[in-house]
Amino acid sequence: MIDYLNEHAQQHPDREAAVEGRVRMSYAELSGHVAALASLLRAKGIVPGHVLAYIGPPGIQYFISLLAAFQSGATWVGLNPKYRSDELAYVIGHARPCIVLVAATADDRTQTELGLAVAKCGAAPQLVFADAGAQALVAAIERIAPLSLAQHPLQADIIRLGAAVLVYTSGSTGKPKAACLTQANLVENSWWLARRLDFESGRFLINLPVNHAGCISDTTLPALLKGDALIFMPAFDPVEAARLVRDEKITVLGQVPTQFQMMHAAGVLTADFLGSVKHMGWGGAAMPGSLIEYLSGFIPDLFNSYGLTESSGTVTITRPGASVEQLAHSVGVPVFDGAVRIVDAAGNPVVDGESGEVQIHGPHVFPGYLGNDAATGQALTAEGWLRTGDTGHWTTDGSLRLVGRLTEMYKSGGYNIYPREIEAVLESYPGVAMAAVIGVADPLWGEAGHAFVQAASETVEAASLSAWCRERLAAYKVPKKFEIRAELPLLPIGKIDRKRLRDMIAAA
């Protein structure tokens, strides 16, 4: 990725590269700051096999630290600023960073939790607190003593796996695992996203968490590869996001559906604010069909994508000109020919139209998890296919339609039921913002569906939802219980936290 930075700095030195608040930085300036920080990291003893961590929101300091890690040969990991001390202590203890760069924009709560976390770690990293500005990163690193290899030995697994970035899975079940993404993984993913955007020069809004692949490999690095401007938004606010899109003339807007829904609820997802947007994409969850239809009235190119941390991001993406039906109920076509297959429980390809596990192959698939060969062996087949745990089938137009997770599937009266199919029906009901269906033990049926519904209207009632489902689904798929709430719990990346919903059912 550094080659792209240097090429843009040489060919287009004055082109705008990064914007955060009132700070505007050209590609020549960005390249200079990255080179200075990378050189200093090496002088302090950071080499391949070492890990550099960053904690804070998306911003210019995040961008520079990521690229400086690339240039120095270090492995970069973003720490989740929303984590509590125990969660941070686990990631720090597992990744074993030599240095944790604390962004100037990191709030007091984040700094307090980080301090508590480091106190719980045996081999504590050096905390480097940066003042505002790009030069502050270099100044902060200059103040620390050179690293001791005795205290910070090289990590053999980091070197073996060629990890450029560590991305910890969301941890909805069990402890998070560290997916190792290589430079080749990141370049391949970025190149295909850039191709889908026709390599058109543009301006990206960057407002996803820096510890997530959606920020790193699906927005930040594709923008860098194309030589685009990255406009950073440290904290998401629906009205402020719309204002930034309008004022900064954002052309590529990629977010999770929850963010778009919040903007719509605030009345700012309009042509007046989004008039500059040429490409709008989402992933991680389904977007309600009614919202897609509304957006199609003034956004030239809408696209939906599917990917995993372990695939470095995008696996499938909808074609230009996709219909509302395709955008709402499929995740597009594979970015590589032959990169996706659907198999049965025995690992044999299923016939078209039949559901099975989605598996992925190609240069964007990760080499493994850090320090967890057992989990790597479970994730990858002997031939290198990534087991996604997602179930889906091919549609007649060659698109992939997801129907659920293998672990989320439940059986009711002997039938396999995939929650996503039911959730899509519920989300098509007027006034329903999002829905999640969980299989719950039932003495008669074995398991029965328990639907959690986030309603944007007080007119949404359980009886009407049940009737709506019965008109559109086989009777055995209709949930036995509907629980209507003002909000559903979300993971930091914006997906519904199904583990918390299961805990709520268990507690009840």
> How does the major sheet shape up?
7 strands, mixed
Could you name the CATH topology of the largest domain?
Rossmann fold
The spatial strand order of the largest sheet comes to 6-5-3-4-7-8-18
What is the 3D shape? globular
- Computed structural class: alpha/beta
Number of self-contained structural domains: 3
**What does the radius of gyration come to?**
23 Å
Give a brief description:
The chain has 508 residues and is of the alpha/beta class.
Describe the SSE topology.
Elements: H1 2-11, E1 16-20, E2 23-26, H2 27-43, E3 51-55, H3 60-72, E4 75-79, H4 85-95, E5 99-102, H5 108-119, E6 126-129, H6 135-142, H7 156-161, E7 165-168, E8 178-181, H8 183-196, E9 203-206, H9 213-226, E10 229-232, H10 238-247, E11 252-255, H11 257-265, H12 271-274, E12 279-282, H13 289-295, E13 301-308, E14 313-317, H14 324-329, E15 333-334, E16 340-343, E17 356-360, E18 368-369, H15 373-379, E19 386-394, E20 400-405, E21 410-412, E22 415-417, H16 419-427, E23 432-442, E24 446-455, H17 462-472, E25 481-485, H18 498-507
Parallel strand pairs: 1-10, 3-4, 3-5, 4-7, 5-6, 9-10, 11-12, 12-13, 24-25
Antiparallel strand pairs: 1-2, 7-8, 8-18, 13-14, 14-15, 16-17, 17-19, 19-20, 21-22, 23-24
Descriptive account of the structure:
- Helices cover 35% and strands 24% of the residues.
- The chain has 18 helices and 25 strands.
- With 508 residues, it is an alpha/beta fold.
- The longest helix is centred in the first third of the chain and has 17 residues, at 27-43.
- A hairpin with a 2-residue loop joins β21 (410-412) and β22.
- It starts with a helix and ends with a helix.
- It has three domains: 25-181, Rossmann fold; 236-405, ANL, N-terminal domain (Rossmann fold); 410-507, ANL, C-terminal domain (GMP Synthetase, Chain A, domain 3, 2-Layer Sandwich), CATH 3.30.300.30.
